[in-house]
Write a structure and sequence with these properties.
alpha/beta; Rossmann fold; 434 Repressor (Amino-terminal Domain); nine-stranded mixed sheet; 9 strands
């Protein structure tokens, strides 16, 4: 669930109050959208993604957004994000809108409203330079958001952050001399695949007359969180993702543990509840500063055992009424029937979000309903062709890069292929 990093300063709560956030509708803009830069076709055509995206058709405006969206209890809050708009000769027609949800981020100041951000460039190259408008949320608790924490892998608030970003984009496009054609596509990667599917489900259930979703491409997402709780082997990146999830759900539900020291071992219990996301540390420095295990090359299982009290971990595995397991079930996405086109994408070699736990289980849940509008794609053959085969000598680097670097562009290319059919 690794992402790329950059950022700007956090907006204080006073600004939200001054702008009337508590009385504003969801998706209302709190700041005037700001044109940050225009990326040119030549930048995309000389970049690393042109082989997957194809030659750019449009320049791309990078526009900052700051909009109203609620917290986990419906309380007033806000989120920031970016709007990417195709521009230039031949790119003035009303555009379809791709709403994107990012992967796991540990850096609190980071925003996608940054022309130099690698994830923003990927979205601009793959979609906006090809004629799509793109809106991407920073989520609650990041960048300009005044929310006190990030509700990590909480399906309902992920969904509202994405949905309200769509509304914010609609509110912002006219100020940038652009327009939308009314068709919406949803996509996201890793945590974002969970978020985009949660939004897809919520829109089709409650908002189909407001938002015309024509397709969703959900990429390497952890859709089966309760199933992942029963894994006896820890996933790659465990020391980042699982403490993040447990402490976020504790803040939301309040019952995962009675005392942080009954869940986490020393010394991590002393700071873990306020560690993620972090204002100064990134994936590397969280480890090198020894705020999380990994400095001594611990395996995922060793990182798990260093972080969590054994009684806490074993109860999750064995007790069907365990509070963490029940929180995971609340955030599973296995319980719905999509009406629009839907694609699942991942790589079968992914050690962080294993498709056998998530993508395959999600596909089976859809197949059990005899749906003809759902497809599932494995991009591992493309990854092996580009970076493999894996060997004993390159295994650490190969699997360390698989989820965060190798897999995303190939899945985005698959997503764009679906969107091109329905735009």
């Amino acid at each position: 669930m690794k992402t790329l990093k950059f950022g700007i300063s956090i907006l204080g709560a006073a600004l939200l109050a001054a702008c009337g956030g508590s009385d504003s509708p969801h998706g209302a803009l709190l700041d005037n959208p700001v044109l940050l830069a225009t990326l040119t076709k030549s930048q995309f055509d000389s970049g690393p993604l042109v082989g997957l995206s194809g030659p750019a058709k449009c320049d791309v405006k990078v526009v900052s957004l700051n909009y109203v969206t609620p917290g986990v209890k419906g309380e007033s809050s806000n989120a920031s994000g970016v709007l990417l708009l195709p521009t230039g000769a031949g790119c003035t027609a009303a555009a379809p809108l791709v709403a994107y949800a990012k992967g796991t981020d540990v850096q609190k100041p980071r925003t996608l409203a940054n022309p130099a951000d690698g994830e923003t460039f990927l979205l601009a190259a793959m979609y906006a330079s090809q004629g799509y408008a793109v809106v991407a949320t920073d989520y609650l608790g990041f960048a300009k958001s005044n929310y006190s924490f990030h509700p990590y892998l909480h399906a309902d608030s992920e969904a509202t952050s994405v949905i309200d970003s769509i509304r914010a984009a609609r509110n912002a496009v006219a100020s940038q001399g652009a327009s939308l054609n009314g068709k919406v596509m949803l996509t996201g990667y890793s945590q974002g695949g969970h978020a985009s599917m949660a939004a897809h489900r919520a829109i089709e259930k409650n908002l189909s007359t407001e938002i015309n979703v024509v397709a969703g491409a959900h990429l390497a997402g952890p859709y089966n969180l309760s199933g992942s709780m029963k894994l006896t082997e820890a996933i790659a990146g465990y020391q980042f993702f699982v403490p993040y999830l447990v402490t976020a759900w504790q803040k939301i539900y309040g019952n995962l543990y009675s005392d942080v020291k009954t869940a986490f071992k020393a010394p991590y219990a002393d700071w873990i509840e306020g560690l993620l996301p972090n204002s100064t540390l990134n994936y590397t420095t969280l480890v090198t500063s020894e705020k999380l295990p990994g400095i001594n090359g611990e395996t995922p299982n060793q990182a798990r055992d260093a972080l969590f009290q054994s009684a806490f971990s074993s109860d999750i595995l064995t007790n069907p009424n365990n509070a963490t397991f029940l929180a995971a079930k609340k955030n599973d996405l296995l319980d719905w029937t999509p009406k629009s086109q839907l694609m699942l994408c991942g790589g079968s070699g992914d050690p962080t979000v294993p498709p056998i736990v998530h993508q395959a289980v999600m596909k089976k849940a859809f197949d059990d309903k005899n749906l003809s509008n759902v497809t599932s794609v494995d991009v591992d053959p493309f990854i092996v062709s580009a970076y493999g085969p894996v060997t004993n000598e390159n295994a650490a680097t190969y699997y360390g890069n698989y989820h965060g670097t190798y897999e995303p562009p190939f899945c985005h290319a698959q997503a764009k292929g679906l969107f091109d059919k329905v735009k």
